[in-house]
Amino acid sequence: MAFIADAALGTGISELLKVAIAVAKQTLAFKTNLKSLVKTLQSVKPIFHEIEKLHKVLDRPQDETDRFIEQLRSGVELVDKCSTIPCWNKYKQYIYSNKLVKLDKDVVKFFQIEAQGLAAVNSLRSVVGIQDSNDKLDLILKYLNISDSGFSFWGSVPGVPDGVVGFERPLKELKEMLLRDEEKVKVVSAPGGCGKTTLVKMLCHDPDIENIFGKNILVVTISKSANITVIVEKIFKCRMPDNKLPDFQNDDDAINHLEYLLKQIGPSPILLVLDDVWPNWVSLIDDLTFSLPNYKILVTSRFSFQRFEPVYNLKILNDKDAMTLFRRCAFPKDGNSKIPEDLVEKTVKGCKGFPLALTVVGRSLYGHPEVTWRLKQRKWSDGKSILDTERELLDCLQTSLDALDEMNESSIKDCCLDLGSFPEDQRIPATTLLDMWAELYNLDDKDMDSFSNLVELAFRNLVNLFCTSHKGNEVDGYCNENYVMQHDLIRDLTIHQSNREPIEQRKRLIIEITGNDFPKWWTEGAGLPIHARLLSISTDKNFSSSWLPLKLPAAEVVILNCSSGLYTIPQFIGSMDKLKVLIVTNYGSSFSKLDNFYCLGSLPILRRIRLERVSLSSLSTSSIELVNLQKITFTMCEIGEAFENGTMDLPRIFPNLLELEIDCCDDLMKLHVGICNVVSLKKISITYCNELSSLPEEIGRLRNLEVLRLNSCTKLLELPESIGNLQKLTVLDISDCLSISNLPRTVGELCALKKFHMRGCQGLADLHKLPSSVKDLTLLEKVICDEEASHLWKTYRSHLKNLVVEEVKEDAFESLMRVISPIQHC
Hints:
Family: Belongs to the disease resistance NB-LRR family.
CATH class of the domain at 168-313: Alpha Beta
Largest sheet: 13 strands, parallel
Protein name: RPW8 domain-containing protein
Strand content: 5-15%
Strand order of the largest sheet: 11-12-13-15-17-19-20-21-22-23-24-25-26
Keywords: Plant defense, Repeat
CATH architecture of the domain at 168-313: 3-Layer(aba) Sandwich
GO molecular function: ADP binding
Structural class: alpha/beta
InterPro entries: LRR_dom_sf (IPR032675), LRR_R13L4/SHOC2-like (IPR055414), NB-ARC (IPR002182), P-loop_NTPase (IPR027417), Powdery_mildew-R_dom (IPR008808), WH-like_DNA-bd_sf (IPR036388)
CATH superfamily of the domain at 168-313: P-loop containing nucleotide triphosphate hydrolases
Helix content: 25-40%
């Protein structure tokens, strides 16, 4: 049996702790009690050693201490006895469990009494002249921070900088979110430079928050390289910045010390602010989420920790607030300035609403003459960005990009840098990015891995990812209603990063052409090869489509962003032998008529084409053959003429096509029968085509078709009877096809069907029954439908053993949003 070798307080605590840890490993019956006792002992151990030393210096009576040492000796015997009690003897387990609880409380009680006694001695020490013990006694008193009202613990909250603008509403919203009782952990998330820390400082100094939490507000900045012990030490230093800290044995010991101390503060409310938390410290939040009443943790981060919902996403400043903040930084307090207003507005616009950018640029221009302002504007207009001139701002944002290097998946950073290829302030369809990344990077499950990268970038606040409708289901491979928006300054950062290399060596060549003004390097060195894998060219409505030659022998993806009514695909694209993906997007106010489409026929490995807001009529008369094309997407295009022409030989043009997507093409009234002869097709997605009224009866020829989506084709009357021939079809989606009033009797012949989406099919919901053949859909796993339509499947439950009918309920608002979703989507 373990025993206490001498009558020493510190030794007694150490021996009891040692035995408690050992026995906790041997028995399950008392594990909870022993764990609590170990935590208590670990918390008080370093303080008891100091108390023991002070007793000797102060020559205090030892009666109470001696009696407590006897309790510790008995405690060792008690813990040791627990290891011998049989698991079947529940009565003894109950008795000894209560004894352990009492021992735990006795240790805490003695600790508090001794601490209060030492506080009284401290008030008299100047009289008796004891100076040698000052530092040690200060350590204990500051560790405990004993006051007349008991325990309190507080750290100095950083002050709020002068001239904060535009945070009135975020402060109100964040305060309301913090004071809700549902969750202990609340997160403030935004990219670097948006003012997260400033907002939280304002919150901590808010009168309502101060009245609730008093001095129990602890603010700690978390560095990427810190460890748990260091972080706990920072919390302790909030109260004792100039003194020796407790000697933490390890990370667990440090957390135990902190938990014990916070328990002494309670039930007073406590607010712990963890500022600038990175993903590698998400476990720290768990470690510090103690089961204490009135205890809150507020996290600020560049990352969106969705599992700690709610997350408050701080937005950039609006134009009015941005101007106010900039003026406060750039001009004297009286606001007088000789700088022209239009020049001020241009400068503010270049800061993209980021508070840090407005502050840095404003201060850099303070007191400078107009010529300095114009020089900065000229640099920005010559292809340089604000990041080229403001190093402090670049350093702040660059850390978010550099953090991507730490991930094992190298494609994450590449995906982020690719986003600079798209115009500012435009939403990017997620499927566009998936098409690019699937071909650019070696991903196992191309679409799903690509979407995972997109989710990761959204988590890191490098993009905003949103869905325009309830039907976005990336797990089913349907991402057509997911979109991405870039933060303007983050976009500038990706372009800045891509442009660091010389033109010839860049992995991404991003070109913006105003009118017909080509970059100087292009006009002077058009014959030199450039080895970029990705080419992005943006032109405005005044571009004449007169191209200069360009050599990109390594290009795998080409993105053409246009705005003019007539747009000619550059002839030099026809010589890009490694081109896999072509994306043409028109951002103008009307359709752009696409010319020179036939040049794509010379590309040997072109696999994906995506066209948006273009008019394509030449397809029917072209002799083009896209032999290796696997996927083609038309979004908001004029394709009716091309896809209704009966003479067009689609199997010849697309001999190996696997996927066809047609989205929001309002002039498509019927589907070209030739599509039914492209037997290689595995996926057909026709969505939001409101004029489409029928499908060819020959659709049953598509023997390899696996997915058929017909979302929101509101005038589609019926499905052809030949649909029963689609023996490989696993997903059928007719959501919001309002005019379909019955299913073909052959639907039961879809022997591979697993998922059937039929939400919003009011015509079907009004039926009294489904075709009896649906009982033969033995592999059907899920039907997604409205509550009104779910009764149609009750008759067949006994036949369809694996079927789950998912009823999707919607309120009036959701119903309204579903009606107008085609407008939002397109």
